[in-house]
Amino acid sequence: MKFEKIVVMGLGYIGLPTASMLATKGYQVLGVDVSYTVVDTINAGEIHIVEPDLDIVVKSAVKSRKLTASLVPEKADAFILAVPTPFKVNGSNSKAPDISYVEAATLAVTPFIEKGNLIILESTSPVGTTKRVYDIIVEERPELCDLIYVAHCPERVLPGHILRELVENDRIIGGINDASSKKASDLYRTFCNGNIYVTDCKTAELAKLVENSFRDVNIAFANELSLICDKLDVNVWELIELANKHPRVNILQPGPGVGGHCIAVDPWFIVDSAPSEARLIRTAREVNDAKPEWVVEKVKNSASKFKNPVIGCLGLAFKANIDDLRESPALKITRELMNAGIGKVMPCEPNVQLTFTEFPLYSLDTIMQEADILLVLVDHNEFGEIDRGFLDDKVVIDTRGIWRK
Ligand SMILES: NC(=O)c1ccc[n+]([C@@H]2O[C@H](COP(=O)([O-])OP(=O)(O)OC[C@H]3O[C@@H](n4cnc5c(N)ncnc54)[C@H](O)[C@@H]3O)[C@@H](O)[C@H]2O)c1
User: Fold this and answer.
1) Active site residue 300
2) 3-state secondary structure string across 61-86
3) Is the CB of 32 under 6 A from ligand 1?
4) CATH number for 249
5) Could you give the CA distance from residue 400 to residue 317 in angstroms, rounded to a whole number?
6) Is the minimum distance from the CB of 38 to ligand 1 under 6 angstroms?
7) What's the mean per-residue pLDDT of the chain?
8) Which of 108, 149, 157 is closest to 130 using CA atoms?
9) Helical (H) or strand (E) element with 121
10) Is residue 404 part of a domain?
11) Residue at a domain's end among 177, 194, 211
12) Is the dihedral of CA 180, 184, 189, 192 positive or negative?
């Protein structure tokens, strides 16, 4: 079967680049979102997120009428689900996956599904969710039993490089059966230049979670090193650089914690599925989650040496050169410092300067003039370009190592 029309559910960081890229490949794409603002913005040929070149691609896809946005789905050959999969706090100290958005999006497309259609779950999901998508559809529409194709194709793009990586990355595809894997591979081969590796849906689901847990565990190691080095008065950046000269050592970089929609979230899905077994994965999460508090204490310590300390917080995003604040340790630290009442806190985040409303943001120039303490929370390019001469009379707490020597 040839794919002509594709519905993409969820027009965020993953769904919008995917929908617009598919439109530029010639598919008729309907992007669906529950947000009026998102739908209106896209139909006006504009975008609501920061991602390099996405504005150009969306504008041209909308202008050519290959991409339209809507609040409701329509019939299509394939449905791609790219809705959020956050966690919910599970009473104690644990976090459980919240697949309610996937369930809602599945229910929303179910009335439009026809025999032979392909449903792809792109959202990062706990093991069993792809099968759950199929079960939801068949519970509502029993006549579709065994007549639709359902597969998981986890997304592994890097924010800031999404449009390129959507096309170039290798993909894992896991269907609920072989026919579903094949059908999904047929679609992805039309736009994906990377290799496509086919497996079952449970392995595909766990593979994505494992990729992010691998990163989390390794960042936890670097973060733990940063605490040890601080205690022993060793420069952690130099230490890691030297240790990495070993041919089989590759330590990642520490930071103020771990944020974002993926690495700070997905390992909990494994912990929730196998709590007794996932001991290292849980500990890594705990180490990374504890780092913001450590940074706050360090700033408080420095601030206690000033009468009326002015603290410049450089960056709120969860990583460099993006506007994404989800699970951001930088935002958490800044909020805590503001609530601690230890002086004047001046946050700077160039990537959300016009849209952020929670508290006032300051320009980098103003902060460089006024701050006694400079807390680097994100390694945005513009922070790295600061004239070092401005730093001489300031206490610098650099959690990202942008001024490492
Ligand atoms: N952002 C990333 O870098 C990244 C990378 C890999 C995987 N993922 C995964 O991709 C999925 C989507 O993430 P994202 O970053 O695009 O999220 P996002 O929050 O940026 O976008 C999700 C969009 O879905 C919409 N939505 C919510 N419920 C809906 C529904 N029932 N129907 C239609 N739209 C609905 C929201 O309004 C929002 O616009 C998540 O599972 C995430 O873990 C994200």
Assistant:
1) no
2) HHHCCCEEEECCCCCCCEEEECCCCC
3) yes
4) 3.40.50.720
5) 13
6) yes
7) 95
8) 149
9) strand 118-121
10) no
11) 194
12) negative
Q: Is the CB of 82 under 6 A from ligand 1?
A: yes
HSE at residue 344, side-chain half, CA atoms within 13 A, is 11
User: Which ligand 1 atom lies nearest to the CA of residue 261?
Assistant: 43
Please check whether residue 141 lies inside any domain of the structure.
yes
262 flagged as catalytic? yes
Considering the domain architecture, whether residues 103 and 252 belong to the same structural domain is answered as no
The protein residue with its alpha carbon nearest to ligand 1, atom 3, reads: 159
CB 122 within 8 A of CB 303: no
- Catalytic residue (one of 153, 192, 201, 262): 262
Determine the average pLDDT of the residues in 55-69.
Answer: 97
169/305 same-domain check:
no
Do 307 and 388 share a domain, yes or no? yes
> How many structural domains comprise the chain?
2
160 lines ligand 1 (CB under 6 A): no
Considering the domain architecture, whether residues 188 and 241 belong to the same structural domain is answered as no
Give me ligand 1 centre to Cα 55, in Å.
18
What's the confidence (pLDDT) of residue 261? Answer: 83
Same domain? 310 vs 393: yes
Residue 86 Cα to ligand 1 middle (Å): 9
Q: Residue 183 is encoded by which pair of tokens?
A: 């059908």
Mean pLDDT of 375-386: 95
Q: Considering the domain boundaries, does residue 109 fall inside one?
A: yes
Give pLDDT, residue 405.
54
138 within some domain: yes
Residue 323 and residue 243 share a domain: yes
Tokens of 380: 């945005």
| pLDDT class of 44 with cuts at 50, 70, 90 | very high
Rounded mean pLDDT, 15-19: 98
Judge if the beta carbon of residue 87 lies within 6 A of ligand 1.
no
User: Is 66 touching ligand 1 by the criterion CB < 6 Å?
Assistant: no
Q: Is residue 149 located within the same domain as residue 273? A: no
Note whether 83 and 143 are same-domain residues: yes
User: How far, in Å, from the CA of 14 to the mean position of ligand 1?
Assistant: 6
Decide: 124 in ligand 1 pocket, CB within 6 A.
Answer: yes
Domain final residue, candidates 170, 194, 218: 194
Tokens matching residue 250: 């590759």
CA of 300 to the centre of ligand 1 (A): 36
Domain of residue 297, residue span = 235-398
Per-residue pLDDT at 380 exceeds 80: yes
